[in-house]
Design brief:
The chain has 278 residues and is of the alpha/beta class. It contains six helices and 18 strands. It has one domain: Nitrilase/N-carbamoyl-D-aminoacid amidohydrolase (4-Layer Sandwich). Helix 1 packs parallel to helix 3. It comes from Candidatus Scalindua rubra.
Amino acid sequence: MVKLEKGLGDKFIVAAIQLCSNEDKNRNLKLVSQFIDNAVKDGANIIVLPEMFNCCGHTEVMVENAEEIPGSTINILSDKARTHGIYIVCGSIFEKVEKNKVHNTSVIVGRNGEILAKYSKVHLFDVDIQDKIRYKESEHVIAGQKIVIVNMGSFEAGLSICYDLRFCELFRTLALRGAKIIFVPSAFTSTTGEYHWDPLIKARAIENQVFVVAANQIGTSPNNITCYGKSMIVDPWGRVLAKAKDNENVITAEIDLNLLDEVRAEIPLFEHRRTDLY
């Protein structure tokens, strides 16, 4: 468990930024900075970016643009966090591991600009959907080995990335370890997103009685893969607090942790869990 500085309290504003990132890192980072400023104007205390927000396209290009952490991308966001006094869930970027090998890594930056947590994607996107999409993330990405919980003073948050959303065991483990909010930076494709995105996000929120903040890519990247968008903020009852339009934009919602406590008291899933059977 990674400790953060003084917490936000029971009520605060979270924002999810939806982008159509490409292979131009300067363009992407400039746009991200603008959206962060806009989210701050809307009162955001925590801002969540999508997966591969700084460079998204052909895998070879993304690997070439991989960085160490901290590096230029995280340093820019650290400055933003420090300037505005906010938390930034830095989506994910390709982190250098060895020649032609990377981690797909999410970073949380605190209000003083320091790195508070780092999570490398555990479940890699290796799929072959006939006549629609073939992608093998494991060709260049090394899977992470650690589940990450961040203590934010008055609550704990869990980290995940995109394809992790399909693995209920990860989300249940995060919840059992105390997570009340789970962040899901994503580049979820339109091929599967049309049928799976909404129900998976709502299911992870309902079954674990947590808030889920999912910031997704949208549109077609240079590798001709189209992402679904529909970034969402969902409460523990499964209600959609905010949902993005079909373009690059930012959504915000108030998180009230008292609601989570109410839901867990009304339907005590964790209290009635049959640990003797699992």
